[in-house]
Specification:
six-stranded mixed sheet, 19% strand, binds 3'-deoxy-guanosine-5'-triphosphate, binds magnesium ion, alpha/beta, single chain, five-stranded parallel sheet, 304 residues, Rossmann fold, Alpha-Beta Plaits
Length: 304
């Protein structure tokens, strides 16, 4: 994808020349003559970097930087005409990633933009790593609790349904004992992919523990979560594994579904999904159990 740069300056010539330069070196460039216009453009589309003048009529560049950093995921480089007027510290304090003096040498600005983009990319990679499970490439459990808290909060506010799916591999210890931990890891990795492919766009999947997975289904009742669970279960049992020293092996999973009940604690919501999963195990594994309220007898809500 092309990188988009927004140039904000009240000087027509600078805007024109800078846009032309940015396009020559391969960026998409847009311009704004003042801060409000810049903010309007930022509402409309994504810019990776904003290069803004400080001295402008109306909202100045430092203020604009502050607003951008509050509202958008965009890097800001500020330009100033008089080296004494504003300090680097002031600009950085408002959230700017870099600072250049006018008259701006375009080659220098380009180097600074490249560095800012490199750092942005690195930061995004790190952010992704921090919430990703290395083996399954699904989100990790820390992210699970953060996201679930956010979704529960939203559900409380809007009174929309929210469901949770918990899944555990059947007899996985046996698989590890028979074929080795490394082969077990391969199953987990494949399962991560299978789960990811079976999800709807709004759902998110997490490695909850060793061989346990969770899926958050926003705007979904427990009943509506059933077909998602059925699809995942089917996809998993349709896969064949070929561990070393083994033949063609298939695995099964047990699932539990719960729906958030307004007012309940987040931990009770999770516990109920866990309990539903446990009921699936009790009933012989390789099945789905839906638990709407806590004290439902084990043989209720059976799903083939
Ligand atoms: P059940 O059907 O009751 O769930 O039986 P189970 O054997 O799957 O359950 P149990 O909780 O007894 O064992 C879970 C096993 O999962 C134990 C452990 O060896 C395996 N496991 C957990 N995390 C990992 C992992 O990261 N890699 C591998 N290879 N195995 C793991
Ligand atoms: Mg387990
Ligand atoms: Mg298990």
């Amino acid at each position: 994808m092309e990188t988009s740069i927004l140039i904000v300056d009240d000087d027509d010539t600078i805007r024109y020349l800078m846009k032309e330069f940015m396009e020559t070196v391969g960026y998409q460039a847009e311009t704004a003559a003042e801060a409000q216009e810049a903010l309007r453009l930022l509402e409309e589309r994504i810019f990776e970097v904003v290069v803004t003048d400080i001295m402008m009529p109306g909202m100045d560049g430092l203020e604009l930087t502050e607003v951008i950093k509050e509202r958008f995921d965009t890097e800001v480089i500020v330009m100033t005409g008089y080296s004494g007027d504003y300090s680097y510290e002031e600009a950085v304090d408002k959230g700017a990633s870099d600072f250049v003096f006018k008259p701006v040498r375009f080659e220098e600005l380009l180097l600074r933009i490249k560095r800012v983009l490199r750092e942005r990319h690195l930061r995004k990679e790190l952010q992704k790593l921090a919430i990703t499970d290395g083996l399954t490439k699904l989100f990790n459990s820390r992210h699970f609790y953060n996201q679930l808290e956010m979704e529960v909060e939203r559900t409380r506010r809007h009174d929309h349904p929210l469901s949770l799916l918990l899944m555990d591999i059947d007899h996985f210890k046996q698989y590890n004992d028979l074929y080795g931990h490394l082969e077990g890891d391969k199953v987990l990795a494949k399962l991560g992919k299978t789960v990811q492919y079976s999800l709807r766009r709004t759902d998110s999947a997490y490695r909850y523990g060793g061989e346990e997975f969770t899926i958050i289904l926003p705007e979904t009742t427990a009943k509506e979560a059933v077909p998602v669970a059925v699809r995942i279960k089917k996809q998993i049992s349709a896969r064949t594994f070929y561990p070393e020293n083994g033949g063609a092996i298939t695995i099964t999973v047990s699932l539990g579904i719960s729906q958030y009940q307004i007012g309940e604690k987040l931990s009770d919501f999770v516990k109920r999904a866990d309990k539903a999963m446990f009921l699936s195990k009790q009933k012989g594994r390789n099945r789905i159990t839906l638990l709407l309220e806590d004290e439902v007898p084990p043989d209720q809500n059976p799903i083939p």
